[in-house]
Amino acid sequence: MGRLSNKLNGDSHQNGSRPRYEIRAKSTKTNGLEISIWQLPSPSAPRLTEPECAGTLKGRPLRLVETAVIKRLRSLGISLARLKPGELVRYPVDEEEAVALALQFRALAPMRSTDRIQTVSTAIDRLSREEANYWLGMALHRKRPRRVLAALRMLLTSP
Predict the structure, then answer these.
(1) 28 has which bridge partners?
(2) pLDDT (tens digit per residue) in 108-129
(3) What is residue 28's predicted lDDT score, i.e. its pLDDT?
(4) Which of 33, 35, 105, 155 has CA 20 to 30 A from 71's CA?
(5) Beta partners for residue 27, in sequence order
(6) pTM of the model as a whole
(7) 128-142, pLDDT tens digit by residue?
(8) What single DSSP character describes residue 41?
(9) Where are the extended beta strands (E) located within the chain?
(10) How far apart are CA 101 and CA 139, in angstroms?
(11) What is the pLDDT of residues 41-99, one digit of tens each?
C-alpha cells in the first residue's frame, strides 16, 4: 500500500522525474459537471512554478462524451458519482491518461457538431502515446494553439 501511495503522490524516486498531473472535477448548479486536467510543478517541468491547466471540458461537449469519460475515470479508480454542487475534488493521475484526456478536452471544447464530437473523441482514444504527447505539446506551447487543434480535428474527421 505504501508503494502505491508513493506512486500516486509522485514521491517515489522513479516518479520524481516524471511529470505530475491531477484531475479536478467540479459540480456547478448551472453548468453541471466540469472536469479539468492540471499539470503540477515537478523536476521534469522546471518551467512550472504553480499548477497549469492542460485542458478543461464542460457544458454540451462534455455531456456528449460524458459516459465514455466517466467510464475511463472509473477504470482509473476515480468516481464522480457523489459529487455535490459546488464541491471540487482532486485526484492524481498518471501521465499517459492525463495527456490523452487533456488532448481530448482541448480538441472537443469548442466543437458543436454531435457527430464530429463523437468522431474526434473516438479517434483521439486510438492515438498512440507518442502521437497524443506530440499534439498536446503543440496545442500547449505553440503561438496559435487554435490552429493546431483545428488541424488535428480536420485530420481526425477527414474520410
Answers:
(1) 32
(2) 999 999 999 999 999 999 999 9
(3) 82
(4) 155
(5) 33
(6) 0.84
(7) 999 999 999 999 999
(8) P
(9) 20-28, 32-40, 52-58, 88-93
(10) 13
(11) 988 888 888 999 999 999 889 999 999 999 999 999 999 888 888 899 999 999 999 99
Joined together, the cell numbers standing for residue 89 give 475534488
The C-alpha atoms of residue 157 and residue 159 are separated, in whole angstroms, by 6
Query: What type of residue sits at position 13?
Result: H
3-state helix, strand, coil in the chain (%, to 5): 50, 20, 30
Residues 80 and 54 sit within 8 Å (Cβ to Cβ): no
Amino acid at 7: K
HEC string for 56-84: EEEHHHHHHHHHHHHHHHHHCCCCCCCCC
CB atoms inside a 10 Å sphere around CB 53: 14
Distances (CA, A) of 82 to 31, 79, 85, 88: 17, 8, 10, 11
Smallest CA-to-CA distance from 81 within 70, 65, 92, 66 is with 70
